[in-house]
């Protein structure tokens, strides 16, 4: 076997290994973002101290802020709906990116593996 074919095989198997790693990371991203699409939580709510703690019996919920009544300003429910819509959009965007990476990694793996192991014609 020539040296160049050994280098090409090592390169091919490294590409296959990288495609498998990207595939599994994409599966994790698809799963995570599918749940976020169903139940979006705005980023500021996730960073708030006590988020989730009171649900499980520990942690302290922060005191609710009293919104100021400014004429023409959106009320609290409108702001919450906007934040939730933004979080859902971000989750859908990440879900699409993860799905594209999943498909591309599968294609790269299949093509590279087929290149490394060509079908030999039997005569």
Describe the fold and architecture:
The chain is an all-alpha fold and 123 residues long. The protein has a domain at 1-41 and 77-116. It has 3 helices and no strands. It is rod-shaped and about 80 Å long. The mean pLDDT is 79.
Mean pLDDT: 79
Largest sheet: none
Radius of gyration: 25 Å
Outline type: rod-shaped
Alpha plus pi helix count: 3
* Element-level helix/strand string: HHH
The end-to-end distance, rounded to whole angstroms, is 24 Å
Strand content: under 5%
**Low-confidence runs:** none
State the share of residues found in helices, binned by percent.
55-70%
Number of strands: 0
Structural class: mainly alpha
Produce the secondary structure layout.
Elements: H1 3-38, H2 43-47, H3 76-116
Task: Give keywords.
rod-shaped; 3 helices; 67% helix; 123 residues; single chain; mainly alpha
């Amino acid at each position: 076997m020539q040296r160049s074919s050994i280098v090409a095989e090592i390169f091919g198997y490294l590409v296959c290994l990288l495609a498998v790693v990207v595939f599994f990371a994409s599966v994790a991203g698809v799963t995570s973002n599918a749940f976020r699409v169903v139940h979006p939580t705005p980023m500021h709510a996730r960073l708030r101290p006590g988020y989730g703690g009171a649900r499980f019996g520990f942690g302290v919920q922060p005191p609710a802020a009293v919104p100021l009544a400014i004429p023409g300003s959106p009320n609290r429910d409108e702001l919450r709906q906007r934040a939730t819509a933004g979080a859902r959009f971000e989750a859908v965007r990440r879900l699409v990116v993860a799905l594209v990476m999943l498909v591309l990694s599968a294609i790269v793996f299949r093509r590279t593996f087929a290149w490394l192991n060509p079908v030999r014609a039997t005569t």
